[in-house]
Amino acid sequence: MLLFVTACAGGGAGDGDGKGKKDGAGKAGDNQASQAVVSIAPKDEAKNIATSGALKIGADKGRLTSVKVEDTKGNEVEGKITGDGKSWEPAHHLGAATKYKVHAIAKDSEGRESAKDTTFTTLVPQNTFVSYFTPEDGSTVGVGMPVSLRFSRGITAPEAVERAVKVTAEPSVPVEGHWFGNDRLDFRPEKYWAAGTKVTLKLNLDGVEGRPGVYGKQTKTVRFTVGRSQVSVVDAEAHTMTVKRDGKVFKTIPITAGAPSTTTYNGQMVISEKYRVTRMNGATVGFGGEYDIKDVPHAMRLSTSGTFIHGNYWAGAGTFGSANVSHGCVGLRDVRGGWDKEAPAAWFFNNSILGDVVVVKNSHDKQIQPDNGLNGWNMSWAEWKK
């Protein structure tokens, strides 16, 4: 027993000879500090930091290997380390009035790591903007429905705002945005959506500086589904409307379009609103006191300027299919009160959804402007992408 203990002790004593010191020196060398230095701007505990351009992370005498930036709720900020490992920047703006923590690691040429941790808080905006979006979350719409955003303030930094909006489709199809003025941004594919498409709109406007000193305050995801395909073609000369469902003729309906002095716009128009009954007053659309009908049945809006496709109970039945007598709308035979479900206007109303397309042709009028309603389809794809 004594011999065994002595043998063990002798092994430990050997650590004190020249060979043992050499091994110990090697390990001590491995404990040298990393030469890599991580730099982070803004400085630790900084306040009132800009949401764009202020966050920068770099490495000197080494390469960044890991960067994590997250808010107090654990939401990570997307970003990318450059190919040379010298810097990292966020992929998009930061949220306003938000505290972030940063953890970054770098390695030197010997593989030794160093790290740095900081926190900072972004600015609290005094002026903000939001977007009002169409269509609604969870809705089912027609194949012509664009994604349309109207902003509560005029935008002078459109590129920054557009980068903060993402529209995707399943099945996938290229979707592009187009600005109408400085307060409206619409998105659409080259052609009508395919029936059954699922579309997702992601708004990441919180912290975007849309104009000097004015920041977005909206983060939201909107999802909607494209229903069956319905495109109806109004022929103003033939006084008919041909309803096509999924590419096949579904029904042909006699109509009346705009009279010679008040013609109907030509072009592709999208149903943007539906009313079982509404008031139509000529004074609101530039016709003075020519008409004021308080109970127009089965009305569906096609333009912002007042073009509707609606029921008409005041014209004689023989008018439909033979004459154009309206003030620019497309009229379908109906009854006062809209109680007759067999009337053409009632049938069309009940078989239409927001986003369905109504195309008017052969009218002695110009083509409708793309921003007059949800009617961007009247622009070529090349124009739309400019």
UniProtKB/TrEMBL annotation:
Keywords, comma-separated and alphabetical: Acyltransferase, Cell membrane, Cell shape, Cell wall biogenesis/degradation, Lipoprotein, Membrane, Palmitate, Peptidoglycan synthesis, Signal, Transferase
Database matches in InterPro entries: Big_10, LD-transpeptidase, LD_TPept_cat_dom, Transpep_catalytic_dom
GO biological process terms on file: cell wall organization; peptidoglycan-protein cross-linking; regulation of cell shape
GO MF term set: acyltransferase activity; peptidoglycan L,D-transpeptidase activity
Record pathway: Glycan biosynthesis; Cell wall biogenesis; peptidoglycan biosynthesis
Statement: the UniProt record of this protein carries the keyword GTP-binding: no
GO cellular component entries: extracellular region
Pfam short name (any one): Big_10
Active site as annotated: H310 (proton donor/acceptor), C329 (nucleophile)
Superkingdom assignment: Bacteria
Ranges where the L,D-TPase catalytic domain occurs: 230-361
Keyword field contains Zinc: no
Record's protein name: L,D-TPase catalytic domain-containing protein
Species classification: Bacteria, Bacillati, Actinomycetota, Actinomycetes, Kitasatosporales
